[in-house]
């Protein structure tokens, strides 16, 4: 008998066909109240789950006694209680690598847009405010040659360093769990403490996962260490930052601006003070959101799920201790 898979993210026709050939599929189209009720109703017979952007906590997963595998269509796994999944020997997989370059592109788009005030000035033109040559009041700040600071030198951090070093001649500072000699050799990057990075980088970029250790890592104390010319970029997770402290730092001109793809609460409230600030560029968690990359992520997730349901070890298994071998 075919295994039962619950999708809470829509797949392309091609991937859907592939999944349906191997499994009985329930598709939850939208994660609204009705969709969540459908999900609850489907969980008791589910062997596999595939999706993203949903906190799958124990209260929900206790409804799924037969669950064997979850394929997250994301590299970040902060939506899952990994200890709980491991205890129940539920295999959790994610989608690293396929989104690395696209997410680093988004990071650089935010660096450029924030430093060169692209959104603010494009809006000025759109609103008919371009009546004469712009002057210093509308000038931005250079990106090339400035110091790029990367907090969390993993896959995306390295891709950002590559762009900064080769594309923009930027000296690279980084802080991570441990130094990476290969990265230092390739990009001339220099390992330093978090404090030194905050004090010296012109662009402070977050490319860390959200974990118990990183939750609230960047707060009032961190912003106080940054310089009034520095620009803060977050393409990791909103909860790594104390958003109230960020708003205060922007209000008090402790930093020049911020490029933010992620927020403490998503979607961001329309009345967030961040949206009133010209020196903030806010994007809707779109780091990996290109047609090509989202399809590659979905394909990776389907591969992981089908491997697990066939009794194999998914290539991108997150909780290795859940694997019986
Ligand atoms: N904005 C978006 O749409 C996207 C956001 N992301 C976020 O980016 C994160 C990073 O992704 P990858 O680069 O693929 O992960 P990765 O695991 O390759 O890199 C993370 C790096 O952070 C370091 N790190 C972790 N905790 C640390 C700590 N407390 N102090 C110092 N360094 C620490 C790790 O050692 C590692 O080098 C994801 O977990 C996800 O949350 C990923 C893709 C898209
Ligand atoms: O993969 C992730 O972790 C994302 O945030 C979306 O691509």
Automatic annotation (TrEMBL):
Gene Ontology CC terms, in alphabetical order: cytosol
Recorded superkingdom: Bacteria
Name of the top EC class for this enzyme: oxidoreductase
A single GO molecular function term of this UniProt record: NAD binding
Organism: Pseudomonas thivervalensis
The EC number(s) this enzyme carries: 1.1.1.79, 1.1.1.81
Keywords annotated in UniProt: NAD, Oxidoreductase, Pyruvate
Domain D-isomer specific 2-hydroxyacid dehydrogenase NAD-binding positions: 108-287
Reaction(s) catalysed (UniProt annotation): (R)-glycerate + NAD(+) = 3-hydroxypyruvate + NADH + H(+); (R)-glycerate + NADP(+) = 3-hydroxypyruvate + NADPH + H(+); glycolate + NADP(+) = glyoxylate + NADPH + H(+)
Similarity comment: Belongs to the D-isomer specific 2-hydroxyacid dehydrogenase family. GhrB subfamily.
Protein name in the entry: Glyoxylate/hydroxypyruvate reductase B
Coiled-coil parts of chain: none
Record-annotated D-isomer specific 2-hydroxyacid dehydrogenase catalytic domain positions: 5-319
